[in-house]
Amino acid sequence: MAKIIISCAVTGSAHVPTMSDALPITPEQIADQSIAAAEAGAAILHLHARMPEDGRPTGDPDVYGRFLPVIRQATDAVVNITTGGAITMTVAERLAAAARFKPELCSLNMGSINFAFFPAARRISSWKHDWEEGYVRNSDDYIFRNTFRDIAYILETLSDAGTRFEHECYDVGHLYNLAHFLDRGLIKPGFFVQMVFGILGGIGADLDNLMFMKQTCDRLFGKDAYQWSVLAAGRHQMPFLTQAALLGGHVRVGLEDSLFIERGVLAVSNAQQVEKIRRILAEMGHEPATPAEAREMLGLKGGDRVEF
User: Fold this and answer.
1) Which residues, 6+ apart, have CB-to-CB distance to 292 below 8 Å?
2) In a 3-state reduction of DSSP, which class is residue 50?
3) Do 295 and 304 contact (CB within 8 A), yes or no?
4) Is the alpha carbon torsion for 62, 106, 236, 290 positive or negative?
5) Cα–Cα nearest to 97, from 186, 195, 30
6) What SS3 state is found at 138?
7) At residue 198, what are phi and psi to the nearest 5 degrees?
8) Phi, psi torsion values for 65, nearest 5 degrees
9) pLDDT tens, 53-103?
10) For a surface tag, which of 96, 137, 285, 307 has the fewest beta carbons within 10 Å of its beta carbon?
């Protein structure tokens, strides 16, 4: 594969403002960093929202409405709205923005998992906002919920809008969940699998696991039925994405997945990570897919059919 889709997950919900001054919080910051990431080579922008006053994750469509039109007017990148939101949100809260704006692409976690990031609290002695410490420390008791009923509800809610999905698979069992929905006809061939490695509670960032996940996809779906991409958390980000690209996978970077640009050095922006993975891909002889090429690969409806 000569062309590789670069996705950029701009802010997420697990990292808190104390962890990095580069993490975009306000709608203006999210818009600015998204546009810069697209200009650097990201074809897909994976977006969450935060309360502008303190960075708390929010599913409020009105907050999304403050940056989505700005991004669409400034770039042709595919906008991917989360349905994962934050682990403290209900399914309805997580789905609200996607249901209103009907994007080309949404993320969809393919099962329930323990989702923990509490070890990060050990490295922080002073917090910017009152909500942050409890949110991080209490993640040892968090479960990200997506039952079979939840997944079906999300798929059915957005089906009439022509929205497709970034199917986030945090473990091998999630691939079998995906196969279940494929058998039910709620997912169609040509789907997009995002393999997630290195989250505490999910499959580890080991090369053997990457190979097994890819082999499982091929066995369950057939090599021509899907596109696949890889993200890896924290320090695993760039080395693991390099391995994925060598195997022909697409890649995802962004401050949602890692706050760093190299060992011990915080990234200054999402665009910096996009630029780095683009250089790595170029050394392998790959070019970043344009938004138009990404739309063709993933069978997306087009940026003119969204509602923002």
Assistant:
1) 76
2) strand
3) no
4) negative
5) 30
6) helix
7) 90, 5
8) -65, -15
9) 999 999 999 999 999 999 999 999 999 999 999 999 999 999 999 999 999
10) 285
- Strand residue runs (E) in the chain: 3-4, 6-9, 44-47, 49-50, 57-58, 78-81, 105-109, 113-114, 143-144, 164-169, 191-197, 226-232, 250-253, 260-262, 265-266, 287-288
How far is 300 from 48, CA to CA, in rounded Å? 20
The sign of the dihedral angle between the CA atoms of 277, 110, 139, 60 is positive
Choose among 31, 19, 24: nearest CA to 71. 31
The domain segmentation of the chain, as residue ranges, is 3-112+144-305
Would you say the C-alpha torsion 127, 130, 132, 136 has a positive or negative sign? Answer: positive
The Cα–Cα gap between 35 and 152 comes to 32
Kindly tell me if the per-residue pLDDT of 159 is higher than 90: no
pTM beyond 0.90: yes
